[in-house]
Design a protein that fits this description.
This protein has helices spanning 4-14, 27-46, 48-52, 61-86, 92-100, 117-138, 144-172, 176-195, 207-212, 220-238, 263-273, 277-290, 292-310, and strands at 248-250, 255-257. With 311 residues, the chain is mostly helical. The protein has a two-stranded antiparallel sheet with strand order 1-2. Strand 1 and strand 2 form a beta hairpin. Helix 6 (117-138) runs antiparallel to helix 10. Phenylacetyl coenzyme A binds next to helix 2, helix 6 and helix 9.
């Protein structure tokens, strides 16, 4: 049974009226948003690591400048999202600490390594491609600050996807060795990219409530299917093969049939056992510890100024 307050809240959601930070909201709505926006923010920040790894080794000055700009954009996305989370009453320090000690998650995809330059193209093409597929509908999410952050993020994300496609295209159209690298990157990153959409609908614990609240607009499987449908023709254009022998167009459904990811691998990576989980968290912890003197200095300065004002 809903209380009157809960009923009024749900009516607003149903009428597509945005919920703003000072509006009343159910505790679980707030908690779900903090979880999702926080995980999303952490993903943007941790997501800088696999690509940052290649900034110093980009093959040309132009590719280096583009990659540098893209990785900086990810930092910006993290910051907008931390700000959106802050409007829900959780500080950036608090959720950062929850990431650092493993209480909060970030996207499973960033626990896979980027072994060579072709992987950077594949990350832009597939990982940013999957990210946009998930984020375009989130522009209409019911919480105002999240929705507005998503609008800006999506604009930048579509540039990221295109730079990735351009980089992998160059490899796919290059020497036989380069084409082989592009195919190998696709082989390794295809299933991790499909996992970005989350578990299959039957195992998605949050989808039903999140969709009733219009925090999520689509189910995980709907978005995964859209991503497959969009990406297969792109792979064909590149002359690359999706690593799924059972992938085929289903005329009746109007969609590609495909093999699901290995869900045991997904849960294992989410639990912390992916190839890079330990490295990623160690890198974030080191950055946090190395930055302690800056935070301390800023606080000391703010206290001094406040004291001077009182005196
Ligand atoms: N990785 O009940 P559901 C980017 C967890 S894009 C890790 O279906 P929900 C851009 C889930 O949290 C990537 N954990 O959950 C970029 C839950 O566990 P919990 C970030 C996952 O929330 C590109 C449990 O499984 N984008 O960073 C994953 O309704 C290139 C049950 O799942 C977003 O975060 C996963 N893949 O749906 C940056 C988008 N999937 O929390 C740099 C916003 C599920 O109860 C370079 N988020 N889990 O402990 C969402 O749309 C949703 O949160 C989903 C999951 C769709 C990810």
């Amino acid at each position: 049974e809903m209380t009157e307050q809960e009923r009024a809240f749900q009516d607003k959601i149903d009428a597509d009226i945005k919920i703003e930070p000072k509006d009343w909201m159910p505790d679980d709505y707030r908690a779900t948003l903090i979880r999702q926006i926080g995980q999303h923010a952490h993903s943007e920040i941790v997501g800088q690591l696999p690509e940052g790894n290649w900034i110093t080794r980009a093959p040309t000055l132009e590719r280096k400048a583009i990659l540098l700009a893209k990785v900086q954009d990810e930092a910006g996305h993290g910051l907008y999202l931390y700000c959106a989370a802050e409007t829900l009453g959780v500080s950036r320090d608090e959720i950062t600490e929850m990431l650092l000690d493993g209480r909060m998650k970030y996207s499973s995809i960033f626990n896979y390594p980027t072994l060579n330059w072709a992987d950077i193209g594949a990350v832009g093409w597939l990982v940013d491609g999957a990210a946009i597929m998930n984020q375009v509908p989130l522009q209409r999410t019911s919480f105002g600050p999240y929705s507005r952050a998503m609008i800006r993020i999506c604009k930048e994300e579509s540039f990221h996807q295109r730079q990735g496609y351009d980089a992998i295209r160059k490899m796919a159209e290059g020497t036989p060795e380069q084409k082989k690298m592009a195919q190998d990157a696709l082989n390794r990153l295809w299933y991790p990219s499909l996992m970005m959409f989350g578990p299959s609908d039957k195992d998605s614990v949050h989808s039903a409530q999140s969709m009733a609240w219009k925090i999520k607009i689509n189910t995980n499987d709907e978005l995964r299917q859209k991503f497959v449908d969009q990406t297969v023709p792109q792979a064909e254009y590149l002359g690359l093969t999706i690593p799924d022998p059972d992938l085929k167009w289903n005329e009746e459904r109007g969609h590609y049939d495909f093999t699901d990811p290995d869900w045991s691998e997904f849960y294992d990576v989410v639990k912390g056992n992916g190839p890079c989980n330990v490295d990623r968290l160690a890198a974030r912890n080191k950055a946090w510890d190395d930055g302690a003197w800056v935070r301390d200095g800023l606080l000391a300065h703010a206290r001094k100024k406040a004291a001077a004002k009182v005196a």
